[in-house]
Amino acid sequence: MSEAATAMAGRRPVRAGVRGGITATGQGLAFAGLAAAQLGLLLLLLFLLSLLGLAVVALLGNHGISVRQHAVLALVLLAAGLVVGRLAAVPSLLGLRNLARLTRRLVGDWAGVSVAESYRSLPSGSQPPFHERLYWLISDPATQRDLVWSAVDVVFGWLIAALPAIAIVTGFLLTGSGLGRRSGSSSSSAVVSAKPGAVGLPNVPTAVSHTHSAGAPLEVLFGLTLVCLGVAVAPWLLRGYTGLARTLLAPTGQAELAQRVHHLTQTRIETIDSGAAEIRRIERDLHDGAQARLVAVGMTLGAAEDLIGTRPDAARALLTEARASSALALAELRALVRGIHPPVLADRGLADAIRALALDSGLRVEVAADLPGRPPPPVESAAYFAVCELLANVSKHAGTRQAWIDLRHERGMLRVDVVDDGSGGADPTGGTGLRGIERRVAAFDGILALNSPAGGPTVATMEIPCALSSPKTSSY
Amino acid sequence: MRVVIAEDLFLLRDGLTRMLAAHGLDVTAAVDNGEDLLKALTGGSPGDPAGGPPDVAVVDVRLPPTFTDEGLRAALAARREIPGLPVLVLSQYVEQLYARELLAEGRGGIGYLLKDRVFDSRQFVDAVRRVAAGGTAMDPEVIARLLASNSGDDAISTLSPREREVLALMAEGRSNAAIAQRLTVTERAVAKHTASIFLKLRLQPSDDDNRRVLAVLAYLGR
User: Fold this and answer.
1) Where are the beta strands (DSSP E) in chain B?
2) How many Cβ atoms from other residues are within 10 Å of residue A156's Cβ?
């Protein structure tokens, strides 16, 4: 039993190694396939450039033809170049970009090293004109890096990826032919030795038959070695290939910085804009609401003052009115303040504020919170209003009354999950609400991920990097 | 009746003291922070010769030094020490969360009102007396929210509109007589509605006003 177990244990790593080698070979082949696709696109681009180049050559060169023929030839080539370019330039560049993206993803999935992307976002407007799109693509340093990668991949990169597969296939072919020849060798030597006189070189057939019978095992041996070698080196070669891909496809430090600056500029503008809009809204609410009511209270009190000597009953009615007005002003101020900074958030922090929100939502919400301290106030506020919006979405669209909220802090991130068992199908691009949350959270480098398949459930997850302050100790 | 007031805004503290005094209540201490409040509630204040806890405390939720829910926490702490100590909590905002915390022990002697309610001094003093007597005084806004969050409740949806009105007023802590006066109906009619409500909500009927209110609040706060 134990011997068998030892043998099994000894065999297991070998089997795993073989399986890994075969997988790596397959993955290498897939990369080689991608390289082939890149080759096609690169050739298309080269063809396009050569058309334009030829047009120039036709215009300037001397081919012993008249000036008019020069001009016609150049024009034809130029027109062809422009037409092909108009149709093919942007799609083939985008195609290369998508292949590079796919390579990044596969490198991430198969080699476990994620490769960052840093493409510039398309200029505003859903469908900018052709020249803008072309300029956007060509001027992006990431496109240039993609092109370099494609060239390297097409010239020799693919060979690294495909080498194990080539070795294995060649090995099998050799083995196959070796085995085939060996089984045929006895008959062939018999034929040759049957008529030695006819050839006049009696030694040769013997030599041939000798080579045959000795060459076949060698061929088989060589073939099998090649197969084993292919399987054995496949993981190493794949690692080399993904390493090369990562080096060439990852953005440079400069590109990463540029992207970071771009992101910061964008979120700063959005934060300032939404802050300014919020202040305008508050000003308008105060102006039309509480302020106006207080003016009315003042006027009513003035009128009551005038009447109190002559018509006390009328004055009393006015005073009652003034009191009602002031109560309304207070109610409006309360609603306003709740929208700026909810009192429970100020008193107790995020967990209790969300519990209070859940109680007022009209839904059955289970809140689980594991926060050993308090996030910075702006983060708390952003997370609170995000949950507010998400719960409002649940009650408006999800068609359910049950939701779960989970709050926790892990790996330097505040993580909030809002889950409902509703009908799903929420589309982040549809409403302004989700976009607003994303914007708000992005100001803290946070993200909102929404998973809402049709039929539900909907899971909204927010992650905001932040540190927790130590919990406040209560004196009671 | 001996009253302790905790309110950090001088104008409001002063106004409350005058109002309660004008209605014949004896304000033994008017403090402006959480620590002093806790002392006044549990140990009796130095300036109070009678000593001992007051008959009722009127407490602002937000107090120094933290300017958070200091007053609420002090009131809850005092009630842990002296079970059933009557406390009327005042706030610029009412929150279901806080109302549930105040009601969690299932004891009376609890009030939770918006500060606006001091505008009507008669009603306000009535609420203070009710709390001091072991009753409850919940703000209509709290009750409205409690009812709203129970809108999916099947038993409540079977109530008639009138029964719902009675339920809301009862949950605020009003007696049958007060409800009858408010709705301009007879006390007998209110009693009939009340019996019907208790039947529909499957609650144990009781002749005791306070116990009835607590049962209703417990039902709404499930």
Assistant:
1) 2-6, 26-31, 56-60, 87-91, 110-114, 136-138
2) 11
* ipTM for the assembly: 0.89
Contact (CB<8Å) B76/A476: yes
CB of A427 within 8 Å of a chain B CB? The answer is no
Closest by CA to A376, choosing from A434, A439, A444, A436, is: A444
Question: Cα(A293)–Cα(A327) distance, rounded to whole angstroms?
Answer: 9
Tell me the β-bridge partners of B136. B110
A340 touches chain B (CB under 8 A): no
Rounded CA-CA distance B213/B186 in Å is 19
Name the minimum distance, in Å, from the CA of B142 to any CA of chain A: 10
**Contact call for A347 and B100, based on CB within 8 A:** no
Q: Position of tokens 């041939």?
A: A208
d(CA B165, CA B181): 13
Q: Which of B158, B120, B137 is nearest to B210 (CA)?
A: B137
pLDDT in tens, A8-50: 555 677 888 888 888 888 888 899 999 999 999 999 888 888 8
pTM of the model: 0.70
The B residues from 69 to 88 touching A (CB cutoff 8 Å) are: 69, 72-74, 76-77
Q: What residues are paired with A408 via a beta bridge? A: A370, A415
Nearest-CB residue to B97 (from A334, A356, A475)? A356
B152 in contact with A, Cβ within 8 Å: yes
